[in-house]
Here is the input.
Amino acid sequence: MADDHGTPEGGPDAAIPGEGTPFHGEEAEPAEPAADEPAGAAAGGPAAGDGGAPMHPDLAPLAFLLGRWEGAGVGGYPTIESFQFGQELVFSHNGKPFLSYTSRTWLLDAEGHLGRPLATESGFWRPQPDGKVELLLAHPTGITEIYLGEINDTRVDLITDVVARTETAKEYSAGRRLYGLIGEDLGWAYDMAAVGQPLQSHISAQLKRVG
Here is the structure.
């Protein structure tokens, strides 16, 4: 989708998730830890929880996601021009059987320099028996989603079960997501059905763990 100026927004309301920290360009400064990142996560490793809480055993199938990830991706849709974006993902836990999750993105120019913030999203990953997982997501654009998925080794496939929109949110009907390790990197892809368009490829990114 596009905003009022015809430029890509983020997440299901338009193009991608985000706000954030620098990824490219000489002007980039060191990234500050996200507000909900566990204290001492860098020193204690990605599995360190809030206050050093041990990881709940139910989280073992999703442990490969833990930490802060940064990188870049590409996006497009029939209703907008193709674009590049920088992204930060943070997966953390507090010792309970769910992961807290945030995503922030920024538009990148042709040289890879950070531009304006795009979308942001946050939510919770809830592992279930038999390799199943539930993902609850909220977007400040007036959209909430519930995804159901399956965990296969270091890959997670998800598709929307419920989408709810406020009266002022843009039309969005379904999403499909894939998260998985590519070597030591985290790759992810997002398909979207919105503004009268069928479910189709929208954005993808490859991220490196930085904390």
